[in-house]
Amino acid sequence: MSTDPIALHISALEIALRGPRRTRRDMISEARAGLRDAATAYREGGLPADQAAVRAVRDFGTVDEVAPDFQDELTARQGRWSALLFALAFPGMMLAWDLFWALGWTSRAAGPAAPTVGVLSSVEDTATLVVASVAVLLLAVTFRRSVPPHRLTRAIGVTGVTGALLCGGLALAMNLTSTDQAGGFVVTNPAAIGAYVGSAVVMLLIIWQSLRTLRVAHASWLAQESGALQL
């Protein structure tokens, strides 16, 4: 086990942070390099290596002191990426289905669709556009510093999971409303299986990203609370 104060401090900081891996890795590397540079400066000033490392760590601050600022940046990046994903994924999936029909890769089920299906379809299209619009708005807000990152990122996570559950539920309801037509449609149009699977995968990805975003937002809130208790 390492006894290097800098390595131990950086390891503790890395464990305390949650967020996008690449951004977290870059931030940790930058912090490590800064500590190494500070320790080198102290050594050049005449301090022994071990004391120089301890002094650099002390100047840097404890994990509870510095983690909130690091976590805020990670949380903002997580929220921004998720908002962008949701702003593209929801309308993208709707357009993909429109293109699927327009290209004539499938034939529609025989017989008129049940009135309920038409209503549910309209509601789903409206919900998709609303969720995408909210995601775009939240994405724009991520570039401002006036809103606490954990609150904004939580709102983005809630938007994603709510949109996925709502749109996925409406799609499921449409198929359950006309099970005979839906079954016949899949049997006569094998390409539709890929479309359904693709839609399910996208929805699961959105839910996974939403839950991850909510976890990062919670970690940011905890870091802020911990920092406040230290004051």
Secondary structure blueprint with pairings:
Elements: H1 5-16, H2 21-44, H3 49-60, H4 63-102, H5 115-141, H6 149-177, H7 179-188, H8 191-230
Helix pairs in contact: 1-2, 2-3, 4-5, 4-6, 4-8, 5-6, 6-8
Task: Describe the protein in words.
With 231 residues, the chain is mainly alpha-helical. It has helices at residues 5-16, 21-44, 49-60, 63-102, 115-141, 149-177, 179-188, 191-230. The relative contact order is 0.14.
Sum up the structure in keywords:
231 residues, mainly alpha, 8 helices, 84% helix, 0% strand
Provide a quick synopsis of the model:
This protein has 231 residues and is mostly helical. The protein has 8 helices and no strands.
Distance between the termini: 32 Å
Question: Total number of helical segments?
Answer: 8
Helix/sheet category: mainly alpha
| Net shape | elongated
Give the integer mean of the pLDDT values. Answer: 86
Number of strands: 0
Kindly provide the radius of gyration, computed on alpha-carbon positions and rounded to a whole number of angstroms: 25 Å
Main β sheet profile: none
Query: Could you name the ranges where pLDDT drops below 50 across 5 or more consecutive residues?
Result: none
Order of helices and strands: HHHHHHHH
Helix content: over 70%
Estimate what percentage of residues fall within beta strands. under 5%
